[in-house]
């Protein structure tokens, strides 16, 4: 009997939720692997990660964060050692054969690689195989051992809740992309968050603002039981690691698509550029487009009276909220104040008039439709 958790492709599935359901056979297999293979794999993976740390630490000493020095024989040697160690680590974790289709373009041709879908911390595999720079949250730098390895590849750090940090991140991406090959290629996951791979959510524009050619890269995990997806609601980080290391083999496919050169119109309109690349990648993946974004995760996961139960209603909510102008121009301080007011009202019902006063908006047909989504 097949697992009920095969590859996600169902239209209308909430992209921020991942559920695992096991057959009796799978439960027995995981139980046996947990007391036999899992401890050995965990020990080997931990050892290899610790082995990589001194190489990354030594290479990072005295290095400038704002400029790239020419590679010496010493740094090239460290780079080679780290690639070998990290590939061995993934092999010990069950990623024995990683299928690569297409060819990665040279840094001189394409400064930015756009990767999707972003669904797991195992998406670090193509990063460690190529040693490309990435865009990652600032908190990643403080992760023991792994933070040093991340710092080695010269990432662009972003502090998600700081609007000014986001602007600086875009400027840094643009500066590196236009450096004429001085900096390493940047591998960007433009979705900006992890999903369950049931569709491609809206791309952030950061990778497309420079208006330079990009190379799309799509990732696939064609495993029967999806143990790798790490979403906002679903198995936690350690449970994913445990279940994945309990699989006999974890297949993965990396496909480099042809270079996408933007038109003059796309250069002037990064959002259009991003959406056209997203369409191209969705076609290669054979998954639908989902007009949700990182900013929709909270409402999609909320519980109680503020819960929107299905993805079609969530999409309708997104459309109506954009029409009301509640997306653009709302800074973090405004959102924090509204969240504080909402917490005080938790558990209480709101009439349409109260809802209007809460949002400081007039009662309109659009607002009435938004209210009805919560009042179902």
Explain what this protein looks like in three dimensions.
It is a single chain. Helices cover 44% and strands 9% of the residues. It folds into two domains: 24-285, 3-Layer(aba) Sandwich (Glycerol-3-phosphate (1)-acyltransferase); 302-374, no CATH class. The chain is built from 14 helices and seven strands. It has 376 residues and is an alpha/beta fold. It has helices at 24-35, 37-60, 73-92, 124-130, 146-152, 163-177, 237-245, 264-268, 270-285, 297-301, 311-324, 332-344, 352-359, 365-374; strands at 98-101, 112-116, 133-137, 156-158, 186-188, 214-220, 252-256.
Number of helices: 14
Q: Flag low-confidence runs.
A: 1-11, 328-333
Shape: globular
Radius of gyration: 22 Å
Give the name of the CATH architecture of the largest domain: 3-Layer(aba) Sandwich
The CATH topology assignment of the largest domain is: Glycerol-3-phosphate (1)-acyltransferase
CATH top level of the largest domain? Alpha Beta
Query: What is the makeup of the main sheet?
Result: 7 strands, mixed
H and E order: HHHEEHEHEHEEHEHHHHHHH
């Amino acid at each position: 009997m097949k697992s009920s958790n095969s590859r996600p492709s169902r239209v209308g599935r909430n992209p921020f939720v991942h559920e695992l359901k096991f057959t009796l056979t799978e439960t027995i297999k995981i139980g046996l692997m947990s007391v036999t293979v899992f401890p050995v794999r965990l020990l080997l993976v931990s050892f290899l990660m610790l082995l990589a740390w001194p190489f990354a630490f030594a290479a990072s000493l005295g290095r400038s964060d704002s400029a790239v020095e020419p590679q010496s024989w010493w740094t090239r040697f460290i780079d080679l050692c780290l690639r070998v160690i990290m590939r061995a680590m993934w092999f010990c974790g069950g990623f024995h054969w990683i299928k690569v289709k297409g060819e990665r373009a040279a840094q001189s041709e394409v400064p930015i690689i756009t990767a999707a879908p972003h669904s797991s911390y195992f998406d670090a595999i193509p990063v460690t195989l190529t040693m490309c720079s990435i865009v990652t949250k600032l908190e990643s730098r403080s992760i023991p051992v792994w933070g040093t390895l991340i710092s080695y590849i010269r990432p662009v750090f972003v502090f998600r809740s700081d609007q000014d940090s986001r602007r600086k991140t875009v400027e840094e991406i643009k500066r590196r992309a236009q450096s004429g090959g001085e900096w390493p290629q940047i591998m960007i996951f433009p979705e900006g968050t992890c999903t369950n791979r049931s569709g491609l959510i809206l791309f952030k524009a950061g990778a497309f603002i420079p208006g330079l050619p990009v190379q799309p890269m799509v990732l696939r995990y064609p495993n029967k039981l999806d143990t790798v997806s790490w979403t906002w609601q679903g198995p936690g980080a350690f449970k994913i690691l445990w279940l994945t290391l309990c699989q006999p083999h974890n297949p993965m496919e990396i496909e480099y698509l042809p270079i996408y050169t933007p038109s003059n119109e796309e250069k002037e309109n990064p959002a259009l550029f991003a959406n056209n690349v997203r369409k191209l990648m969705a076609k290669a993946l054979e998954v639908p487009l989902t007009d949700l974004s990182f900013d929709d995760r909270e409402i999609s996961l909320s519980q109680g009276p503020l819960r929107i139960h299905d993805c079609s209603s969530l999409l309708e909510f997104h459309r109506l909220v954009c029409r009301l102008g509640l997306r653009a121009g709302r800074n973090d301080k405004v959102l924090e104040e509204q969240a504080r007011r909402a917490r005080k009202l938790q558990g209480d019902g709101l009439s349409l008039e109260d809802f209007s006063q809460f949002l400081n908006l007039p009662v309109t047909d659009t607002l009435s439709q938004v209210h009805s989504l919560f009042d179902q």
